[in-house]
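Notes, Module 5: Reading structure tokens.

Key idea: the token line is not a picture. It is a compressed description, and you learn to read it the same way you learned to read a sequence, by spotting repeated patterns. We will look at two proteins. The first is printed below with its tokens.
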Amino acid sequence: MTYVPAPIALRQPEQLTTLVENRTVYTLEAFELNVFETHRTAHQVPLSMGHVVLTTMLQGKKVMHLPGQASFEYLPGESVVVGENETMVIDFPEADEQHPTQCLAVAIPTDTIRQTVDLLNEEQPRAEAHLPWHLDTLEHAHFQNTPELTGTLERLVQLSRDTGRVKDVLAGFTIQEMLVRLMQTQARQLLFHNYQQHATSHRFAAVVQYIKQHLTEQITVEKLAELACMSKATFFRVFKRELGLTPVEYIIQERLQEAKRLLRNPLTKVADVCFRAGFNNTAYFQKLFKQYEGVTPGAYKRQALG
């Protein structure tokens, strides 16, 4: 499932100063929030914000060119972290008045990043001492949003439009939460997609590898804690703190991904998929699938097969 922040009302063409990356700015003490809209096809458009920036696509498609990286398509439900003083070069291959692009960009002060990272490393260290908390603007800078990160971004947008006296106080707390959610999302990217590379150097990568290899079997938190060389309580707490979800939630998400893969096969039946994906109760499977994907397994299968 793609987690896209709630859309922001598009401006009318006559309200725009330019049809390419028209910018609306909301400035608070804790951060600067920008909404960019593009209503015309364009290529090789440079953009530099002068700060570390978290950008999130809300609508349409871009092609991003960042220094030292291969170009990539940038779609709704995805985010990109751009380094301080780094210039993005952007293509808008499909933008027009009927299909505009819209992107959110949160400029984050360097001091806020440093204070948040220092606080986490001092009071809530990660499981591996050789991998402290940090904001990655290079290797894991492009990723799918998590529901937690999306929710925080939506609150930032609401605060930007708020006229209350305490909005700057709330904004300070919320931007710190956004940074934590952002680093958790990047930690997921590192482990969930590159677990084999880190299986011998990161205890949670070994846990992820075990879950993937035994997905259709009964998996206990006790066994996972043993693999991580932690007590059950410590493992559960640190796993959620570092990755933003519990071990049980991760197992469910992996099983649902496997279920979706199986459902795309026209020869499989929903009941068979339930057990082949590691669930042992069809009613529970139906409930979880609807909760996470927004549709029943049967409806997903019909949509997937057209």
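Here is the second protein, with the sequence above and the tokens below, as before.
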Amino acid sequence: MVVPRAILPFHLEGRPVRGRLVRLGGLADSLIARHELSEDVSRLLGESLALTAGLAAALKFRGSFSLQAKGDGPVPMLLTDCTDAGEIRGYARSEGTPMGSAGALLGKGYLAFTCDQGPEMDRYQGIVGIEGETLAEMTDAYFRTSEQLQAFVRLACRRTPEGWRATALILERVAAEGGIDGLGNEEADDAWHTATTLAATVTEAEMLDDALAPEQLLHRLFHLEGLLVDRPRALSYGCRCSRARLAGVLQGFPESDLDEMAEHGQITMTCEFCNLAFRFDRAEVKGAAGRA
């Protein structure tokens, strides 16, 4: 599934503000509904998917950008990633049917933002402790401590009559004209304050309304602030699992472990991202001890 205009980058002319509006549309339902998760965990997963896509869109890279949360709460693992081509996937590991805010679901732990460009390039990673009750608050803490960057993040995700929908609105403060970073610059401070105040007026209903075009939503918020919309970017469902890759994983296990995995002569492996099950005949899988 492909959403051609899922990410709409924009900036405010003459002001130290750039941003992205991410609307996953039907892609959110395709990604979330395949997992058996509680309502609140599904909402957290959807917010993470939209946020990851929005953060990845601000980078120039080849590879994947991921958001990973590990905590001691009923959702001990949350992982979403997006490639430079806009292929997105994610999963949340939960215990039971937990309810509550993102902070309650994740508990104490850390949040990691990672840009992986392959084995020949250094991997960039920023890690912060989980701080705040919402994923947006946790991301703000990351920007403040790791990136030393002012940012505004608003996330929305819920099940609508059309299925799950997820949206992210991200604003970042950039260098003002002339190379001034804005710290101590009263005019730039005022411009940033105005932009974030306007962004804070957006409602969840507006963010998740399929009938409200992204350009129209941004126009409502920033039409008096020199809004300039850039070229939209597509997002698509992008699980990178394959039968060949999983077969290679199985071949790394000893024969005795493969025997324990087999049921009625078959080994079943399920991808955590897409929740698809791959079945292999035990007789056809050669373990580590069985290879030359």
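Summary for the second protein:
- The chain is about 30% helix and 30% strand.
- The radius of gyration is 21 Å.
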